[in-house]
Amino acid sequence: MKILSIVGARPQFIKCAPLSREIRKGHEEILVHTGQHYDAEMSDVFFKDLNIPEPNYNLGIGSSSHAEQTGRMLIEIEKVLIEEEPEMVLVYGDTNSTLAGALAASKLHIKVAHVEAGLRSFDRRMPEEINRVMTDHISNLLFCPTETAVTNLKNEGIIEGIYKVGDVMKDAVEYNRDIAEKRSTILEDLNLVPKEFMVATVHRPSNTDSIDNLTSIVKAFIDVDETIVFPVHPRTEKYLKEYALWDKLCQHVKVIHPLGYLDMLKLMSNAKKILTDSGGVQKEAYMLAVPCVTMRENTEWVETVQDGWNVLTGADHEKIVSAIEVFRASKVRNEIFGSGKVSIKICDLLNLHVHS
Ligand code: UD1
Ligand code: UDP
Questions:
Q1: By CB distance 3.0 to 4.6 Å, which of 156, 259, 316, 352 could disulfide with 264?
Q2: Which of 11, 5, 4, 346 has the alpha carbon at shortest distance from 172?
Q3: Which of 91, 256, 281, 282 to mutate to test the pocket of ligand 2 (most atoms within 8 A of CB)?
Q4: What pLDDT, in 10s, does the model give residues 67-84?
């Protein structure tokens, strides 16, 4: 089968790596990079770290408003789909690249498979929530990471094509954990002692685009007596500088450029706690058994909270400080993201679908 996979943003490179490897064992894969993320440290480094094949197309869309970015992707993706005539389009997660890929394909009557289907924060102010809902409703195959995701889809009346396969990021963690441990020198480079530092990431518009929320988060990082390493997303760097928070933050926190996956994995697995608003990082914290403080009011990954490994603080200064200082994770851990080998399960289902 000819499968066309669409990626564009950092978390999608990580999710596509294990699945692409598996797909290419039995199918022809055409890889399309929308160019949503384009800096070397937001894109190239992942292709290199994870041995992802060079994309067949890079659409070079870049940054702009939601409508312009998504609209330009739609136009360019449609041209590629008409040229390549794939039997299936594979999209990942919940970015504008996901929605554009699913929408362009479904209008051409090409089947769409959505990896990481069914996630909901029930917060329609998040751009990702709109992308998830729309993508799920036009997908033919919905690969869900959790039981909650399956239930969410059923509650919206989607009943066909749903498969609970587990979380593909688990494949990425399992494949790369030892490689990262051996190859990455990030702890030495930053002078860090295992389990004596915390890692932070922040990039949600609800935190970065609000001066009050970003100030509250920065103040919390400064007020606690902890070594915090903070690889800063370009969106966040822009706002930290605009709100004049950058210099103060750099005086108290180890502020660094975005990291490649292997360095990030090594950093996270050796951290005492992880402080984040990222979806992927919340999951990885759980997979690596590191307690997580999530600076959001809600999460799609409710099981991490229910299981006692993640706590929600929003951007509330007191709550963040308290969680950094006193939150202790549960001793119990269930396999909430499945038993692994997710890429193989997805490929088996794709094969079944072709032959049915
Ligand atoms: C996007 C996704 C989000 C995902 C995140 C992963 C949408 C709506 N959002 O958010 O779901 O969690 O990626 O990181 O799809 N920029 C650069 N260089 C880059 C990329 C971005 O400087 O290589 C800057 C630009 O100023 C840009 C801003 O970051 O305007 C935001 O980038 P964009 O891709 O629009 O959204 P993200 O916040 O990265
Ligand atoms: N990540 C990384 N380097 C960084 C920050 C994050 O490799 O400096 C990885 C992280 O380990 C996870 C993924 O990027 O696998 C998460 O992406 P992000 O937080 O940008 O997006 P989200 O998951 O929130 O959509």
A1: 259
A2: 11
A3: 281
A4: 999 999 999 999 999 999
Question: Is residue 194 domain-shared with residue 293, that is, in the same domain?
Answer: yes
Do 149 and 183 fall within a single domain?
Answer: no
331 falls within a domain: no
Let me know whether 298 and 162 are in one domain: no
Range of the domain at 238: 175-326
Neighbouring-strand partners of residue 112 = 89
In the numeric block, the tokens 């002692």 are attached to 193
Atom of ligand 2 nearest to the CA of 277: 24
SS3 assignment, position 39: coil
Ligand 2, atom nearest to 265 Cα: 11
Instruction: Give one DSSP letter per residue of 140-187, joined into a string.
Output: SEEEESSHHHHHHHHHTT--SSEEE---HHHHHHHHHHHHHHHH--HH
For residue range 148-161, list pLDDT tens digits in order.
Answer: 999 999 999 999 99
Asked whether residue 146 falls in the same domain as residue 211, the answer is: no
Please report the pLDDT score of residue 352 as a whole number.
85
pLDDT tens digits, 5-39: 999 999 999 999 999 999 999 999 999 999 999 99
Instruction: Report phi then psi at 3, rounded to 5.
Output: -110, 130
Ligand 2 pocket: which residues have CB below 6 Å? 10-11, 14, 201, 203, 231, 258-259, 261, 264, 278-281, 284
Residue found by looking up tokens 């409710």 in the block: 302
* Ligand 1 and 70: CB distance under 6 A: no
- pLDDT tens profile 75-119: 999 999 999 999 999 999 999 999 999 999 999 999 999 999 999
Respond yes or no: is residue 203 known to be catalytic: yes
Residues 66 and 151 grouped into a single domain: yes
Does residue 235 line the site of ligand 1, with CB under 6 A?
Answer: yes
Q: Of the bound ligands, which one is closest to the alpha carbon of residue 61? A: 1
